[in-house]
Amino acid sequence: MTRKSIDGIVAVMLTPFDAKGAVDAASLSRLVDWYIANGVDVLFAVCQSSEVLHLSLEERVAISRFVVGHAAGRVPVISSGHIGPTREEQLAELTAIAATGPDALVLITNRLDPDNQGEAAFRENLDWLLARLPADLPLGLYECPAPYRRLLSESELAYCAGTGRFVIFKDVCCDLGRIERRVRLVAGSPLAIVNANGTIALEAMKVGSKGYSGVFTNIHPDLYAWMYRSWRTYPALAEELSAFLAVASVSELMGYPAIAKLYLQKLGTIDTIKCRAIDYDIHERFWWGGEPILDKIAIASEHYRKVIASLEK
User: Fold this and answer.
1) CATH code: domain of residue 137
2) Is 264 exposed, middle or buried (0-12, 13-18, 19+ CB in 10 A)?
3) Fewest CB atoms within 10 Å of the CB: 2, 101, 153, 183?
């Protein structure tokens, strides 16, 4: 498999559902197009934002295959989807996902050490899988927060980088100093560190994060894309934009992923805000904010788009 560059703005894809709760292929098609039109560099299918823990294996495989097919080479697609408790189950899941043709197959760190036993267990399970997965398939790593956030130690990260098989690491440590150390640690390897925390997105880029892969790639990925590509040229505007993006990202706490689906529904990109990961009405629970806050975010996002467009005149 020819290796593509797997970095930049990595969209953590949502899974649209129809009113009956089934995966909505028409909305998913529009969503893929929306991400690409808004400047993402990579699509990350079947991740936590996709509600992976609430999808059957058949659905995970079908989503990955659909996204790969609909993206049609416009941007790289990476996929995860191994959630089983045993490595045998995970190998079956990963093999099925790999067969859908993603540009990289992403391993979830907490699945490599499901009982949080430490580095020995992590290394043993990782080595077992590496010996059985296709040797020419690029791999990724993801510190998925669920069912628990399993951060990699420096020695574990160095080991993974040293294999030469890993091309992207979705970093969820949310610690700027640690990100900087990780960037130095993998220097010279194919592994790109991509920060997932929106509040330190700009600062992480400055210390070497090769992009951003957080939940607000579902709201204004184009603004993160501009910041990633232009912060050196327009440092003052990048700092101002960064402050807005950081504050806006806090709205994740108002029922994500439904809050992001509401935003996309208002744009006409997806049809419903139905989720499997949450079972409450976000309008009722977040009566004090919710949709009006999304409207303010949309207004401010449009303001910054106009400011950015004026730079090109």
Assistant:
1) 3.20.20.70
2) buried
3) 2
